[in-house]
Amino acid sequence: MRAITIFLALAATAGAAAGERAPMPTHVTPWAPTGEVVEPGRVRLEYTVVAHVGAAVGLADGLELRLSAGAPQPPVQLFEADLALRGQLVRAGPVRVAVGAIGAAAWLGDSHDASRSSGRWLHGGEATVGLLDPRGHVAWSHRRLRDPDGTTAVDVDVVTASWVIAHVRVVGAVGRVRDARAGRCGVTAARATAPALPCAPGEHADVAALGVSFRGGRITGTAGLAAALFDDYPPVPLPYLTISVPLEL
Fold first, then answer.
1. How far apart are CA 104 and CA 82, in angstroms?
2. pLDDT, tens digit (0-9, with 9 covering 90-100), for 171-190
3. Mind listing the pLDDT tens digit for each residue in 58-79?
4. Helix (H, G, I), strand (E, B) or coil at 24
5. C-beta separation of 79 from 53 below 8 A
6. Cα atoms in the Cβ-side hemisphere of radius 13 Å centred on 167
7. What are φ and ψ of residue 68, in 5° steps?
8. Sequence-ordered strand ranges (E) for the chain
9. Cis peptide before 50, with omega less than 30 degrees from 0?
């Protein structure tokens, strides 16, 4: 079942290059960490081609509710829906720090072996640290996702950066998804009656993305290429397009 969690994290990471010209507003997508949150009374809707939608709602000063659903990374047969509550702890000058709690459901299909297709409930947390400037930004996000029975757990680390060159914001990202249980061979579980944890195989995935931002009135977006290295999926660069629309409540 680790594959479902890894693919959910991988799909989110693969779009990590989402960004905008300064000032950089919050994106709904968790693959564009900045440390920002949506302002109170505002909503941000986002659509990523081919089939992934999301929304973030500003609940209070420094607090937002984010939800999304769809197939984040065709042709991988992953379908997911998630809900996250995010709060901003630090907003001082260029520094941003935000944390959040995540609940999700995912279904992963396998075109080679239908018996390996399955669904999973997941939950976890996230922390983001960012430095924002009108000329560019750099941010790091760490997330941990696991299933309720604790048999699956992965860590997701994403680093994103952008820089304005000749009035065009170039954005890029690198990320790694790894088995959080790797290296815990023989560790006894908290319950005295539970057996020692088995050795984890140490599965991981690497992702890279590069793109440019654009703006048309209030609508902003990012277009570029992203590629992922995981299992037997070929690391073919795939184009992506994200459109972001701000609304007022």
1. 4
2. 888 888 777 665 444 443 33
3. 999 999 999 988 865 555 556 7
4. coil
5. no
6. 1
7. -155, 160
8. 42-49, 51-60, 63-71, 78-92, 95-108, 118-133, 136-146, 153-165, 168-179, 204-216, 219-229, 238-248
9. yes
- Model confidence, pTM: 0.77
Is the CB of residue 152 less than 8 Å from the CB of residue 203? no
Rounded CA separation 247/157 (Å): 30
What would the two tokens of residue 13 be?
């990471």
* Contact assessment for residue 206 and residue 224, using Cβ atoms and an 8 Å cutoff: no
Distance between CA 94 and CA 53 in Å, rounded? 29
Peptide bond into 23 cis (omega under 30): yes
Q: Which strand (E) or helix (H) includes residue 4? A: helix 2-14
pLDDT in tens, 145-156: 888 877 777 788
34: tokens are 């900045």
**Per-residue pLDDT tens digits for 29-46:** 666 788 889 899 999 998
